[in-house]
Design goal:
The structure holds 2 protein chains of 2 kinds. Chain A is an alpha+beta fold. In chain A, a hairpin with a 2-residue loop joins strand 2 and strand 3. Chain A is elongated. In chain B, helix 2 crosses helix 8. Chain B is elongated. Chain B starts with 9 loop residues before the first helix and ends with a helix. Classes of the chains: A alpha+beta, B mainly alpha. At the A-B interface, helix 4, strand 4 and helix 5 of A face helix 4, strand 3, helix 6, helix 7 and helix 8 of B. Strand 4 of chain A pairs antiparallel with strand 3 of chain B.
Chain lengths: 135, 334
């Protein structure tokens, strides 16, 4: 179950989660070997990232021997749905309106009859262009 | 009304602010008359040029207020630098915009209340813009988390069941496109959508819109909202033209706009409140059905010459501007 709180995740946190979704479970060392080395970050950084994700209730952990084994406590789809839900909520509230440039506006629609009229205009222009070319 | 050199500059700040507001108000007043007359001519211009002119016009009151107020201090600044002699002695009896002899703070209660109100309005508006910036940053961050890089560099795919295509960000603008839109469009249509969004990136439209909204406060509200709407339309049309330039067919761009609009109407989630009145689709499509307006480019040398001319004219009028401002301040606050 995803915690109700809006999730603000950094790029590394997301990468760690992606790795754990892939492997289902893993230790800090294992994750470090998979994503830490290629990123040039230390084992400590991975450990503190895992700890942050645990505190955010996105991971669960179990002590095996001397190390924690982490596993995701949320599904990937669940988290994505929450992130997208947040975006939809913000966009529909019009709070960012002018700071994003959408191909078609989010909060303003053209009615169907107007769209039909515009479509007819385009068809007419295309036909005119074709007949001009044929001449 | 002359103060003493050892006293603080509160009076000078008050007068400077009052002068700025006065100049901004005059510019806004002139705009209410000039804009309706100039609007038709503006719409006959290519959208990229129109959008630039509108941006400058939107921030003109604030900009002119600051620039002219700075110029009113020039005589005092020049004498401070030793280029001319101090002329404070001829000002006995009225406000003087002088860095040597700062005027006494104003004791007019009405004006002080006006300052507080203005300061409150400015703080609220700036706070609102900062809040919007933070919201945009959060949206970008959420979209980054929920997306994966696309085949095209700088474009990210979001696994979303809506026909989303947008660019967002101030410093690091990014393009996001939904997997649903990628599936629904043909490669040619997708190229048009990406070319349009890429144009937003190249033009730094988020930054331009932030500047336009944040610094257009001094315009009268009804004019400001009309100008901002025209600015939005000009921006979108400029990006449509960029898409035409890249893909080569005006009718294909018009067609793609309609297709995405129809997809959006069908698949929007119920949570999203929509308004039918504010859409600019008709204007965008209709503009693409006629050839793009042409405009003879003004040579850069002419622009530089005109700017130098304006600078020399302002310097020549510096003394008059200084005295006019002092007299006006005396009239208002004396």
């Amino acid at each position: 179950m995803l915690p109700m709180k809006r999730q603000n995740l950094g790029e590394l946190e997301m990468a760690v989660l992606e790795q754990l979704w892939l492997t289902k479970a893993g230790s800090a060392k294992g994750i470090y070997q998979n994503i830490g080395i290629q990123r040039g970050i230390s084992l400590n950084t991975i450990q503190s990232t895992l700890d942050r994700l645990f505190k955010k209730q996105l991971l669960s952990r179990e002590k095996v021997s001397h190390a924690y084994i982490y596993s995701p406590s949320v599904e990937r789809g669940e988290l994505m749905a929450q992130l997208i839900g947040d975006v939809v909520e913000t966009l529909s509230g019009g709070k960012t309106d002018y700071l994003l440039s959408a191909f078609v506006e989010f909060a303003a629609r053209t009615d169907e009859s107007n769209l039909d009229r515009l479509e007819q205009l385009i068809t007419k222009h295309r036909a005119d262009e074709c007949s001009d070319t044929q001449k | 009304m002359l103060g003493h050199p050892e006293m603080n500059y509160l009076g000078l700040i008050q007068l400077g602010l009052l002068a700025s507001v006065g100049f901004a108000f005059l510019t806004a007043l002139m705009s209410t008359v000039a804009y309706p007359l100039a609007r038709q001519r503006l719409f006959a211009m290519p959208p990229a040029l129109r959008s630039n002119i509108l941006l400058i016009w939107l921030i003109a009151p604030a900009l002119i207020g600051v620039v002219l107020t700075t110029f009113t201090f020039l005589p005092s600044l020049l004498s401070l630098l030793g280029f001319s002699s101090d002329h404070c002695t001829i000002h006995d009896g009225h406000f003087h915009l002088c860095l040597f002899h700062p005027p006494l703070p104003m004791d007019n209660i009405t004006l002080q209340v006006c300052f507080v109100v203005l300061l409150g309005i400015a703080t609220i508006s700036i706070g609102k813009q900062i809040f919007k910036l933070l919201q945009a940053y959060k949206v970008q961050r959420s979209l980054m988390m929920a997306s994966k890089p696309f085949d095209v560099q700088g474009v990210y795919v979001v696994d979303w069941g809506m026909p989303l295509a947008l660019s967002i960000g101030i410093r690091h603008m990014k393009i996001f496109i939904s997997s649903q839109l990628i599936q629904a469009l043909s490669p040619k249509q997708l190229e048009i959508v990406l070319a349009h969004e890429q144009a937003h990136l190249n033009r730094k439209d988020s930054l331009r819109h932030f500047v336009a909204h944040a610094f257009s406060l001094f315009h009268f509200p009804w004019l400001r909202s009309n100008m901002l709407m025209d600015f939005d339309l000009a921006t979108e049309q400029a990006c449509d033209e960029a898409a035409v330039e890249k893909t080569g067919d005006r009718l294909n761009v018009a067609d793609t706009i309609l297709i995405v609009e129809r997809l959006f109407s069908v698949s929007r989630p119920p949570v999203m409140a929509m308004s039918i009145s504010g859409s600019n689709i008709s204007s965008r499509v209709e503009a693409l059905l006629v050839p793009s307006p042409t405009h003879r480019a003004v040579p850069k040398a002419h622009v530089v010459l005109a700017l130098f001319g304006l600078l020399f004219f302002t310097l020549a009028m510096m003394g008059n501007l200084h005295h006019f401002t002092e007299s006006a301040l005396q009239l208002v606050a004396g």
